[in-house]
Design brief:
Helix content: under 10%
Number of helices: 0
Distance between the termini: 32 Å
Number of strands: 9
Low-confidence stretches: none
Structural class: mainly beta
Radius of gyration: 18 Å
Strand order of the largest sheet: 4-5-8-7-6-9
Shape: elongated
Largest sheet: 6 strands, antiparallel, barrel
Length: 150
């Protein structure tokens, strides 16, 4: 609440012509039923090439997990989390964060989960869970930047 809104894309439109005060577009991808009257948003640009991967970094940048796209008791692979870091910190699509297992306030260094950034929107970003070893993720969890797109 207060950081943005959850938007679930139903498709991607490609503009084919500009006519007067409007445009003509073709549906180039459909994830759910695309309907007349739906709101549109400019798709984020990606400058990734095949074979590009995030590289390990030695960073002390941490992110706070603000919440999730859906309310579930346990968040697994594919779930989307919202982070309190974004463009001001240089976050890019493809960057990776790690949550660590903390038991009895003793840091074990064991990976609990890994998340990969899928959208950067100003001062915040969205990341999907790509690995879970211990289901400890919840709003307020601290995440550490471990890989960066170069």
């Amino acid at each position: 609440e207060g950081f943005g809104q959850v938007v679930e894309p139903t498709g991607i439109l490609a503009v084919t012509a500009v006519e007067g005060a409007g445009v003509v577009a073709m549906v180039s991808a459909e994830f759910d039923r695309v309907r007349l009257g739906q709101r549109l948003r400019l798709a984020p640009g990606y400058n990734m090439m095949p074979g590009m991967v995030a590289q390990p970094v030695d960073s002390n940048l941490t992110a706070l997990l603000l919440g999730f796209d859906l309310d579930r008791p346990v968040h697994g692979i594919g779930a989307v989390a919202f982070l309190d870091v974004g463009e001001p910190e240089g976050i890019k699509v493809g960057d990776e964060f790690r949550a660590y297992v903390n038991r009895d306030d003793e840091w074990t260094g064991e990976e609990a989960a890994r998340l990969q950034v899928v959208l950067v929107d100003g001062p915040v970003s969205s990341a999907r869970i790509v690995a879970v070893n211990d289901p400890v993720l919840r709003p307020g969890s601290e995440l550490h930047l471990i890989k960066k797109m170069q």
